[in-house]
Amino acid sequence: MQRAILLKNKTAQQDKYEIEFQSNGFEPVFIPLISHTHIPQGLLKLLEDDAYLKDLQDIIVTTQRTVECLYESVLPQLHASTRQLFLEKTVYAVGPSTKDFLIRIGFKNVKGGEDAGNGSILSDIIISDYREQGKNSEPLLLVGEIRRDIIPKKLSSNGIQVKEVITYKTENLPDNLTRFQAMARENSWVVFFSPQGTEEIIESIKNGSNHRVASIGPTTEEFLQRKGLEPDVVSLKPDERNLVNAILSI
Fold it and tell me: Quick count: other Cβ atoms within 10 Å of Cβ 239?
């Protein structure tokens, strides 16, 4: 059985990448590269304001780490009525996995997902909706401490101001290369989901390994190329099925 090294934290509740790789004859192994610490205080404080919560229409979520913070550190601390009102808000999500996770924790109206593989595409969807519906409200953007500013810049340039609230912070784990080398096997697939924490692993692969490399999408592909590592495949969309299909295609 060929090993697939997934350079990511295993998703809480259920990881669809694990299921998809196993069902296609791979042995998936997760190697977390970064630690996540929830920072729920800012959002909890904001949601104490009944007037703000009532006026809030839309939430923007770009990562599963934010959803984990909501699930583990925010929703359990809300009063039942506040939680219900919060879960009724429209959520715009980057990627299908983030969308599915949001639905599993109770959000009813989630847009984007498989139709929004990155923040730029999601911004286009939001801009289109706001124009069609004549909205002038301020969406709530839930982010990590380290984040790109594509969404707020693009929305702002189209007259949509956002309110940003940090929900988690990330730090590189100290022994990423050691754990990678311990788990690597001959002809393993190595799947990159994000640039963070990968530098030493990239150099290790470049220095004569026989691993094959897969990228979850074009942003990570560009990072790998800048570091001198050309991926063998790039997933057409950032989801488990397209990723595995890309790997099976060669």
Answer: 23
Helix ranges, 70-189 (H): 80-87, 96-104, 119-133, 150-156, 176-183
Task: Tell me which architecture the domain covering 2-33+173-248 has in CATH.
Answer: 3-Layer(aba) Sandwich (3.40)
Say what the pTM is: 0.75
Q: Where in the chain are all domains bearing CATH 3.40.50.10090?
A: 2-33+173-248, 37-170
Place of tokens 């991926």: 231
- What tens digit of pLDDT does each residue of 192-230 get? 998 999 999 999 999 888 999 999 988 899 999 999 999
For 56-71, write each residue's pLDDT tens digit.
999 999 988 999 999 9
Distance CA 107, CA 204 (A): 42
Are 83 and 107 within 8 A, CB to CB? no
Per residue in 125-143, pLDDT tens?
999 999 999 998 999 999 9
What is the torsional sign of CA 67, 177, 183, 189? positive
For residue 49 the two structure tokens come to 């304001």
Give the bridge partners for 170, in sequence order. Answer: 36
CATH of 37-170, one of 3.40.50.10090, 3.30.460.80, 3.40.50.300, 3.90.550.10: 3.40.50.10090
> How many residues are recorded in the chain?
250
Distance of CA 140 to the CA centre of its chain: 17
Q: What is the DSSP string of 159-171?
A: T---EEEEEEEEE
Burial of 154 (0-12, 13-18, 19+ CB in 10 A): middle
